[in-house]
Amino acid sequence: MVSRFRPEPLGQSLPDRTGILLCNLGTPDAPTTAATRRYLAEFLSDQRVVEIPPLVWKPLLHGVILRTRPAKSAAKYRSVWMPEGSPLAVWTEKQAKLLRGTLGEAGHQVLVRPAMRYGNPSIASQLDAFKAEGVRRVLVLPLYPQYSATTTASVVDAVNAWCASARDIPEIRFVRSYHRDPGYIQALAQSVRKQWQLDGRAPKLVMSFHGIPERNVRLGDPYQQHSQETARLLAAELGLADSEYMLTFQSRFGKAKWLEPYTEPSLIALAQQGLRHVQVMCPGFPADCLETLEEINQEVREAFVHAGGQQFDYIACLNDQPRWIQALRELALQHLQGWDTGTAPSQPR
């Protein structure tokens, strides 16, 4: 008789440890059509992402979208691919290493592993690795500052799916959102001020967030409200008047109405109205990825210049900025309260 529950690893006898699972969206393993097709098939099959009945959606996905979209997307990935790999994977792994390091410097022996909701390393594989290392307490920290059912809730689904086949389930906590966390806002503000020092202050700062269907918000998704609050707090931190910044939404997919205003049409309109210098950032993306490097810094930049704009400054995501890593540490410690995080060994004299 085969059981649906997995046997426990030898790590069961190790001292209890605490771990942080730093979760991001995902990326293909390589900028090829085949790898991109595998990634998109997993991503677009998630009903949290596409809320269309499977009987309607699956024939369209497998019969049309996965036959045409992967080659186009792979070409876009190639345009931003780093020597070390996909930008999203590179930055997420670096953030995990830096977070573990800064926690260790503060006296906390906490394991930190990066995980991708779609693609590799998967959430399930990293939870398996934690279990083998004796981790009995897991803080799941999604790299989605603004909560959405399309992102954060999908991470919860993946963790729960792993738990459904486990015998010995660790204690688990989830960070729901941190869209107004002071450390996060201050890190964003610092990145803008650095850009101002380099290129001066543009008349308009555009904050571009990933979009979701408008219907999701009508049904109760708080993502739009969270994005607006982040934009408002960041503007206040920077001392911007309402006329000096703009919130937009990018990455629309399909024909349904998504949250507006859309990023690219907004930048075109600004150029056509005579704005020559603009600075653009993506506060909802803690790590640079296809949507920031290709869509914003290539496609939207080109559209702005073609419409008459002259200077387009892209402000990089938080990536490995020290103030952001500090904010991650503060956020993690806030949610780790009450758990044993160990004591870092003293340094030899």
From TrEMBL:
Its EC number is 4.98.1.1. The keyword Metal-binding applies. Keywords: Cytoplasm, Heme biosynthesis, Iron, Lyase, Metal-binding, Porphyrin biosynthesis. The keyword Disulfide bond does not apply. Its main location: cytoplasm. Fe(2+) binds at residues 210, 291. PROSITE patterns: FERROCHELATASE (PS00534). It catalyses: Fe-coproporphyrin III + 2 H(+) = coproporphyrin III + Fe(2+); heme b + 2 H(+) = protoporphyrin IX + Fe(2+). Pathway: Porphyrin-containing compound metabolism; protoheme biosynthesis; protoheme from protoporphyrin-IX: step 1/1. It is found in: Cytoplasm. It comes from the Bacteria. Catalyzes the ferrous insertion into protoporphyrin IX. Belongs to the ferrochelatase family. This is Ferrochelatase. The lineage of its organism: Bacteria, Pseudomonadati, Pseudomonadota, Betaproteobacteria, Burkholderiales.
